[in-house]
């Protein structure tokens, strides 16, 4: 059992105890343990038992439970709480905005045991009769449940990428490699995916019996040329069956409906039966540029391909820098030195440290004094590590009125400033626009961080007029981040072409809170490819001299 599984168990234990109304002093111990264990640099399973108890935050009770989990693979007390709680009540924990204390009231006082019941109670306005549930809370709960239910069975691209090889290998083993190819949303690198789609060149009658293993997936739907299964993890697996031309099938099942309809209006989609396995030939037969699968979303891209005007897409190794990172000075795990050395080892040219600003107290945001200290420390590191360079930055909170979290004198001490909204995310569009536009107009803001605050599959972002925000970034020479965390990917790729038309730079940034977080850069690049981004349009692809030049030119222009 690794640290994150142990931490998950403690976190669930603490929540279940809260739901049961146990002493909050006790439940807090476990939630703090979960938080600490998740951030430990060492694996507990590799730590000698006698050293466990000297780890900060692991006292007697927590330590003993860790040992039980390591020895037995589970935790009795957690199993007991799970057995004592209706599954529908546990499921409520998945809904944003309903914490364990509220679930306690919902279950014990309102007598509701499932999300369906709870949603119905919201519709009937019953929640407002209880303490702690105003009309606003009730509306939030209702929207959160609706959103959760809507996204059930959906997965982030990054989650599926992890299990993709397993499914792919399994199908290839069952039906031979030449007959199997991945297609659909996964092949298009969509950010969230409802169905994993494959072509399997066999008849339904051949496919179905092969799935009758010990744990057969559930067959949800059967059509003449497709089978839809549901796997144990909730993922839907669609198999396009039939014995046809593979290239043609691949083409027809890869593009979005808009794309395919637009294509069919002008061109044939029949490929030579002797075609290679991929679908390139369909484009060459149409005498247009090959459109990579990730871009087969809109009709507009076909026009670009006709004009032989498709961009040369950015690739993961075109990112030369790691911009937007949190060290252990705020809520990150690693020291700045560890992050810098890891960057050097991975071949990056520079690192931008942007810890949280002072209002983000939950994330140990930096006071003015800590900023001065951190800058001294970065200077020392830069002396040691040259020619590698660490840039001094901050992820500065955009406050409620759009002002920034420090005075201009303090902001002037950074090489660059990333401005992001972290508080009061529930805003009307007017409020959100006013807040962002004020921040963008601040001459010290270099990059606008995660533009909408969305969390894919769990939180919609605040509403924005994207065009106006992008126009204002163009006017104020503010770079727009593509936050590469697989749950954010914010700004959305659909706005990239408008931004680049307006000559706004974007920056693919990992928002890393640990060394592993650097790996997320790839997801930012995959999302950006969908929007047709080139490396020239991406700030984090700038070489170190280009980046320095960019920052100094910008400061000159702004007179700061
Ligand atoms: Zn942030
Ligand atoms: Zn951040």
What do you see in this structure?
The chain is an alpha/beta fold and 560 residues long. It contains 24 helices and 14 strands. The strands form 3 sheets. Strands 8-9-10-11-12-13-14 form a 7-stranded parallel β-sheet. A 5-stranded mixed β-sheet has the order 2-4-7-6-5, with helices on both faces. Helix 1 (3-19) packs antiparallel against helix 2, helix 1 (3-19) crosses helix 5 (76-84) and helix 1 crosses helix 7 (100-109). It is globular and about 70 Å long. The structure holds zinc ion (2 copies). Residues 395, 420, 422, 449-450 line the site of one zinc ion.
Short description:
By secondary structure, the protein is of the alpha/beta class. The chain has 24 helices and 14 strands.
How would you describe this structure in keywords?
single chain, 560 residues, alpha/beta, five-stranded mixed β-sheet
């Amino acid at each position: 059992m690794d640290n994150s599984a142990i931490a998950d168990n403690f976190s669930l234990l603490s929540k279940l105890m809260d739901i049961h109304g146990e002493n909050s002093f006790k439940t807090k111990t476990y939630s703090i343990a979960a938080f600490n264990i998740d951030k430990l640099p060492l694996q507990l399973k590799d730590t000698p038992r006698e050293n466990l108890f000297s780890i900060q935050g692991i006292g007697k009770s927590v330590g003993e439970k860790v040992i039980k989990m390591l020895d037995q693979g589970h935790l009795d007390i957690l199993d007991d709480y799970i057995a004592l709680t209706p599954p529908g009540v546990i499921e409520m924990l998945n809904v944003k905005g309903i914490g364990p204390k509220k679930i306690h009231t919902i279950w014990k006082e309102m007598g509701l045991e499932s999300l369906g019941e709870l949603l119905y109670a919201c519709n009937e306005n019953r929640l407002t009769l209880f303490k702690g549930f105003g009309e606003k809370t009730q509306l939030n709960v209702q929207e959160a449940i609706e959103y959760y239910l809507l996204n059930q069975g959906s997965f982030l691209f990054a989650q599926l990428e992890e299990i993709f090889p397993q499914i792919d290998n399994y199908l290839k083993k069952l039906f031979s490699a030449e007959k199997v190819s991945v297609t659909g949303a996964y092949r298009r690198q969509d950010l969230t995916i409802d169905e994993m789609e494959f072509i399997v060149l066999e008849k339904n009658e051949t496919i179905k019996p092969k799935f009758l293993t010990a744990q057969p997936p559930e067959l949800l739907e059967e059509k003449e040329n497709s089978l839809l299964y549901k796997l144990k993890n909730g993922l839907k697996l669609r198999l396009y069956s039939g014995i046809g031309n593979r290239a043609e099938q691949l083409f027809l099942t890869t593009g979005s409906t808009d794309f395919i309809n637009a294509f069919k209006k002008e061109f044939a989609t029949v490929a030579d039966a002797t075609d290679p396995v991929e679908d390139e030939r369909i484009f060459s037969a149409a005498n247009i540029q090959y459109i990579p699968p990730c871009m087969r979303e809109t009709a507009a891209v076909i026009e670009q391909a006709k004009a032989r005007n498709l961009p040369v897409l950015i690739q993961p190794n075109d990112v030369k820098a790691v911009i937007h990172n949190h060290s252990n000075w705020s809520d990150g795990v690693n020291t700045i030195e560890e992050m810098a050395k890891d960057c050097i080892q991975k071949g990056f040219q520079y690192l931008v440290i942007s810890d949280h600003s002072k209002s983000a107290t939950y994330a140990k945001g930096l006071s003015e004094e800590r900023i001065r200290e951190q800058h001294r420390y970065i200077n020392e590191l830069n002396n040691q590590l040259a020619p590698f360079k660490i840039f001094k930055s901050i992820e500065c909170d955009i406050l409620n009125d759009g002002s920034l979290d420090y005075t201009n004198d303090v902001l002037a001490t950074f090489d660059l400033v990333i401005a992001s909204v972290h508080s009061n995310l529930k805003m009307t569009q007017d409020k959100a626009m006013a807040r962002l536009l004020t921040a963008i107009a601040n001459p010290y803001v270099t990059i606008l961080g995660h533009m909408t605050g969305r969390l894919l599959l769990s939180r919609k972002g605040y509403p924005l007029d994207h065009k106006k925000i992008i126009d204002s970034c163009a006017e104020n020479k503010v770079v727009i981040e593509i936050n590469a965390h697989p749950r954010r990917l914010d700004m959305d790729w659909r706005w990239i072409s408008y931004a680049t038309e307006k000559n706004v730079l974007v920056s693919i940034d990992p928002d890393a809170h640990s060394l592993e977080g650097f790996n997320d850069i790839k997801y930012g690049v995959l999302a950006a490819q969908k929007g047709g981004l080139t490396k020239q349009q991406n700030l984090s692809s700038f070489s170190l001299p280009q980046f320095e030049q960019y920052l100094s030119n910008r400061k000159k222009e702004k007179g700061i």
